[in-house]
UniProtKB/TrEMBL annotation:
<feature type="domain" description="Inosine/uridine-preferring nucleoside hydrolase">
    <location>
        <begin position="4"/>
        <end position="306"/>
    </location>
</feature>
<keyword id="KW-0378">Hydrolase</keyword>
<dbReference type="GO" id="GO:0008477">
    <property type="term" value="F:purine nucleosidase activity"/>
</dbReference>
<dbReference type="GO" id="GO:0006152">
    <property type="term" value="P:purine nucleoside catabolic process"/>
</dbReference>
<dbReference type="InterPro" id="IPR001910">
    <property type="entry name" value="Inosine/uridine_hydrolase_dom"/>
</dbReference>
<dbReference type="GO" id="GO:0005829">
    <property type="term" value="C:cytosol"/>
</dbReference>
<protein>
    <submittedName>
        <fullName>Nucleoside hydrolase</fullName>
    </submittedName>
</protein>
<keyword id="KW-0326">Glycosidase</keyword>
<dbReference type="InterPro" id="IPR036452">
    <property type="entry name" value="Ribo_hydro-like"/>
</dbReference>
<dbReference type="InterPro" id="IPR023186">
    <property type="entry name" value="IUNH"/>
</dbReference>
<dbReference type="Pfam" id="PF01156">
    <property type="entry name" value="IU_nuc_hydro"/>
</dbReference>
Length: 314
């Protein structure tokens, strides 16, 4: 299995992503690090521990990281994820404890503990990852790559220009996108295109096991927020869980190597990811300009990832 660390802001769709990562045999979840984003850091930690319990995870270490973005104050997304960040569902009781170290130290220890390079799956504002890269640049060689849910080629969600995770901490996103490691940007376009329909959700909610029932309740909560169906049908996006699918089954997405920069200026464009999709025939783009190691997901096989997700939970 691929050794991975998930960096999360659980978060309704982060919960779905954690369930998938824990349940799927292709991944070996070495640690989970928490950051403020969809909910406060404290809620993110509580939600993450509860979801790991529900998913039947082994003793995966969990640590709390940055409680605010690098520059700006944290901003809540309670209107999307519910007051407790988990659709206001009751969290199951469990005896799991958060590690007594900062998330960046847990990342360091996890990277140092293995000779294999580890894949980071970043599903939240990129504050923890940016601080890791700044504090321990020598550890970059132990990172196989970073798959991040964040950014958008076209329209944003937090603002007309910006996707939430990048908008929440644009400076951190700029550090990660420019760090020189292979980064896969799984942005809002694929994010919205991997969906479940009403029948899938009804089946999950009627299931005997609490994991699938909770997944169904979480998807029902997201109804109307994340899904996009070309034919106009009512669907719900699995969101961040799609970025986990892209690590498990990389053939399910179409990627394009392209330079990506983050707009850091104050105002309406702050947090926008500017993806340079110009070709070398475009006179304005110098032909010798290298593309760099960032790959942007431009398309996704939604049916394939929907199946992957539902089968892993079954
Ligand atoms: C991102 O923000 C959150 O709402 C989701 O968990 C996802 O990581 C989408 O913009
Ligand atoms: Ca998230």
């Amino acid at each position: 299995p691929i050794p991975v660390v998930l960096d999360v802001d659980t978060g309704v769709d982060d919960a779905l992503a954690l369930m998938l990562a824990v349940r799927h045999p292709a991944l070996d979840v070495r640690a989970v690090t928490c950051v403020a984003g969809n909910a406060s850091l404290e809620q993110v930690v509580d939600n993450t521990l509860a979801v790991l319990e529900l998913s039947g995870a082994g003793p995966v270490p969990v640590a709390a990281g940055m409680s605010t973005p690098l520059v700006e104050p944290a901003r809540s997304a309670g209107h999307v994820h519910g007051g407790n960040g988990l659709a206001d569902l009751a969290r199951p009781a469990h005896g799991r404890r958060v590690e007594p170290v900062h998330a960046v130290e847990l990342l360091r220890a996890t990277l140092e503990a293995t000779s294999e390079a580890v894949t980071l799956i970043a599903l939240a504002p990129l504050t923890n990852i940016a601080v890791l890269l700044r504090m321990y640049p020598r550890l970059a060689e132990r990172i196989a790559g970073i798959t991040m849910m964040g950014g958008a080629i076209f329209v944003g969600n937090a603002t007309p220009s910006a996707e939430f995770n990048v908008w929440h901490d644009p400076e951190a996103a700029e550090i990660v996108l420019g760090c020189g490691l292979p980064v896969t940007m799984y942005g809002l376009e694929p994010f919205r295109r991997v969906t479940c329909d009403a029948d899938d959700i009804a089946r999950l909610r009627a299931a005997g096991d609490p994991l699938r029932r909770t997944a169904g309740d979480l998807l029902a909560h997201l109804d109307g927020v994340t899904g996009e169906d070309a034919s106009g049908g009512r669907v719900v996006g699995i969101g961040d869980a799609g970025a986990v699918c892209a690590v498990i089954d990389p053939e399910g997405v179409t990627r394009r190597r392209a330079p990506v920069s983050v707009s850091l200026a104050p105002g309406i464009t702050r947090g926008r990811t500017v993806v340079d999709l110009r070709t070398s025939t475009d006179t304005a783009r110098p032909a010798e300009e290298p593309d760099g190691p960032v790959e942007v997901v431009t398309d996704v096989d939604g049916a394939r990832y929907r199946r992957l997700f539902l089968e892993a939970l079954a």
